[in-house]
Amino acid sequence: MKIYETATAPNPRRVRMFLAEKGLLDQVEFIQVDIAKGENLTPEFVAMNPMKKVPVAVLDDGTSLAETMAICRYVEEAHPETPKLLGDSPKQKALIEQWLRWIDFYLMTPVGMCFQHTSGYFKDRMNCFPDYGQDCYGAAEKFLDFLNDHLKNNTYLLGDEFTAVDINAFATIAFARVVKLRIKDEQTHLQAWFDRINQRASAKV
Amino acid sequence: MKIYETATAPNPRRVRMFLAEKGLLDQVEFIQVDIAKGENLTPEFVAMNPMKKVPVAVLDDGTSLAETMAICRYVEEAHPETPKLLGDSPKQKALIEQWLRWIDFYLMTPVGMCFQHTSGYFKDRMNCFPDYGQDCYGAAEKFLDFLNDHLKNNTYLLGDEFTAVDINAFATIAFARVVKLRIKDEQTHLQAWFDRINQRASAKV
Question: Signal sequence: where (chains A, B) (predicted)?
Answer without folding.
Answer: none
